């Protein structure tokens, strides 16, 4: 069976407005969207001990990929994350997102907002990518880890990965 990732937040290859800056539900703090996507996966490879999730905007207008969410050590027997798990669940570790980079109107973002899902807030349409990695071990990382640390920790331990790509804005 193929390892696959799904989300009800993605409809016709577009992320629903409520998960980003177009939300009319007040899901932002300091202009940063806070409600993480519901995610479901199946076809888990044998030997999976944990999962890691990376949510990135490769169309960032500043010219570099923008990391919106990093999560790891999701137990290998888990097959989904509920909507807003970034804020409400406590059974996995989250890394530092790119909202921590001071620029433009986002100069003094509270640290708490950089250690959770920080959703899409583009001024024009962007393409976003969510990747889930099935890993053969639990990673030796601590809260606030960086993307480069995650990549190095996963090296040689990725059993499979699944990707969702969608537009927002």
Automatic annotation (TrEMBL):
Citing just one GO molecular function, the answer is: protein kinase inhibitor activity
UniProt-listed CDD domains: PEBP_bact_arch
Per its UniProt record, what InterPro entries does this chain match?
PEBP (IPR008914), PEBP-like_sf (IPR036610), YbhB_YbcL/LppC-like (IPR005247)
Provide this UniProt record's keywords sorted from A to Z.
Protein kinase inhibitor
Keyword Magnesium applies = no
Pfam families per the UniProt record, alphabetical = PBP
Protein name (database record): YbhB/YbcL family Raf kinase inhibitor-like protein
Natural source organism: Irregularibacter muris
